[in-house]
Amino acid sequence: MDILLSERFRKMIKQSNLRITMSQLGEMTGVSPSQIRYWEKKGYINSEQGEKNQNHLYSIGILYRVCTIKFFLDQGYTLAVAVKKEKERREAINLFREFIFSQRLSVKQTGSDKGEITLGKIAEDSNIEVYATIENGKTGLHLRKMNN
User: pLDDT digits over 85-129, tens only?
Assistant: First the structure.
């Protein structure tokens, strides 16, 4: 049952069709519409626009991108560096997402505020698996022989 539910969530995330307008994007991120237009003109972000003179619509991914660029701008970086840092961060998140989606993680609650996540088998020895324990906000990584 859990696997079916997780597959549904994966599909929803990958196929998300939720779009927001430029005004909404500006309100949510604190970035002015003129900045958004400039970033789009420079190719840093993109929108979807049906016919000419229709509203520009932005995906949730673009919302995250604008928030991240703004975060780095607020830290004092130039726009070019902020865009570069956002891209590096996005690529790292994509790698992590690929890891999460490609693994068959097993999550088990073992008590109040504690649990265990099985991360997968060791590449060099398929009889050993890696698992994480979480207890009271602290995590640890461990190895154990698998039960055959």
Answer: 999 999 999 898 888 877 778 889 999 889 999 998 899 998 999
What percent of the chain lies above the pLDDT cut of 90? 61
Tally of CB atoms within 10 A around 26: 17
Q: Cα–Cα–Cα angle for 136, 104, 11, nearest 5°?
A: 105
Instruction: Please check whether residue 131 is in contact with residue 123, taking contact to mean a CB–CB distance below 8 angstroms.
Output: no
Sketch out the chain's domains with CATH numbers: 18-102 (1.10.1660.10), 106-145 (no CATH)
- State the Cα–Cα distance between residues 92 and 82, nearest whole angstrom: 15
Residue among 116, 111, 110 nearest 132 (CA): 116
Q: According to the 3-state scheme, what is the secondary structure of 12-47?
A: HHHCCCCEEEHHHHHHHHCCCHHHHHHHHHCCCCCC
Say whether 111 sits in a helix, a strand or coil: strand
Whether the CA torsion 92, 78, 19, 64 is positive or negative: it is positive
Which of 71, 62, 59 lies closest to 18 in space, CA to CA?
59
